[in-house]
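Researcher: I'd like a candidate sequence for this fold, 354 residues long. If you have to choose between options at a position, lean toward the conservative one.
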């Protein structure tokens, strides 16, 4: 069931929701949260489709906020709110309201959304694209207990990831982090199978992919070992190699679907590790509404690590090898002149002999 409202208000939208529930015979709907999607017209369809699929696991009221920014002063003065109310089969397992904001009301979206939130229910805000630099201090983000962004959709994902570390607030999360959940689970399970000490790691994936960076940050923060990042043609993450005292552990996924887990002394095993759709990622994030401390620790560790690498990148050809070789190299430099001294006296001895 769909109801279109033109030049409306939040109060009229609430009345349309009540009338719609009565019309379809479900006056009481058990919804567990309010999901606010902030997007543009171009990406609204895909985001709403993913939210509807996720609502089958998490029945919710979905509010889609589309800001129609006007360029001309005449259109800017035309302030109005249009809404589309969807119930029943058109709204998954909950309710959907598509809000289109025009004119000055674009700058006050929170005043439109606030009256439409479910009472005494958690609020999650999701930015599929064009997320604010500081989600927690965004007017809409301030209404939520959980704020979901996607650095992979940004124009400069790595810079965006660094900005997320600077402005992190408990409750923030990112779909680039959600994408590596199966990788983290598989690697943790592999390490549980052998008694060993991890000495280093290598994470391979396509360039400028924030999931590759986040997985490297997580390994470095949890294992306290150096982690190298390698480039590949993708798709996404392609391989992780852990060097251990018991031999290498390799998780390789060259095609984005089926991976091979190799552990020293054991036969290779094929594991399902396909790239997941956005609906699955959102459904996973909606399962937990408390702060993700593991994500926070990895993100903060990664920022410091990225800064250190940026400082070391310029003089890389002259950099010494690992710290363990620094002292022998210094001693060799001190002994070098002593070896050259006899060579200088050799001509004098030859002249005396002649």
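Model: Candidate sequence:
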């Amino acid at each position: 069931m769909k109801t279109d409202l033109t030049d409306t208000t939040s109060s009229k939208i609430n009345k349309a929701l009540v009338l719609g529930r009565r019309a379809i015979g479900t006056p009481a709907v058990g919804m567990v949260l309010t999901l606010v999607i902030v997007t543009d017209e171009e990406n609204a369809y895909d985001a709403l489709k993913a939210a509807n699929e996720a609502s089958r696991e998490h029945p919710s009221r979905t509010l889609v906020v589309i800001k129609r920014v006007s360029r001309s002063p005449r259109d800017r003065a035309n302030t109005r709110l249009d809404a589309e109310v969807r119930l029943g089969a058109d709204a998954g397992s909950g309710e959907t309201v598509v809000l289109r904001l025009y004119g000055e009301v674009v700058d006050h979206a929170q005043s439109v959304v606030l009256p439409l939130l479910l009472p005494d229910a958690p609020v999650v805000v999701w930015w599929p694209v064009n997320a604010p630099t500081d989600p927690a201090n965004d007017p809409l983000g301030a209404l939520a207990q959980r704020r979901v962004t996607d650095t992979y959709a940004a124009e400069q994902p790595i810079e965006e990831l660094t900005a997320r570390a600077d402005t992190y607030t408990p409750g923030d999360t990112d779909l680039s982090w959600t994408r590596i959940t199966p990788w983290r689970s598989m690697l943790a399970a592999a390490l549980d199978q052998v008694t060993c000490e991890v000495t280093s790691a290598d994470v391979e994936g396509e360039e400028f992919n924030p999931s590759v960076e986040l997985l490297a940050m997580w390994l470095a923060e949890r294992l306290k070992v150096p982690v190298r990042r390698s480039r590949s043609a993708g798709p996404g993450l392609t391989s992780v190699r852990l060097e251990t005292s018991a031999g290498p552990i390799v998780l390789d996924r060259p095609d984005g679907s089926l991976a091979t887990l190799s552990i020293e002394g054991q036969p290779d095993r094929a594991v399902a590790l396909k790239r997941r759709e956005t609906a699955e990622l959102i459904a996973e994030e909606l399962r937990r509404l408390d702060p993700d401390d593991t994500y926070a620790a990895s993100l903060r560790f990664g920022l410091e690590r990225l800064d250190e690498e940026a400082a070391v990148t310029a003089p890389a050809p002259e950099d010494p090898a690992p710290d363990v070789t620094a002292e022998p190299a210094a001693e060799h430099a001190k002994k070098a002149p002593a070896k050259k001294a006899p060579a200088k006296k050799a001509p004098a001895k030859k002249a005396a002999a002649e």
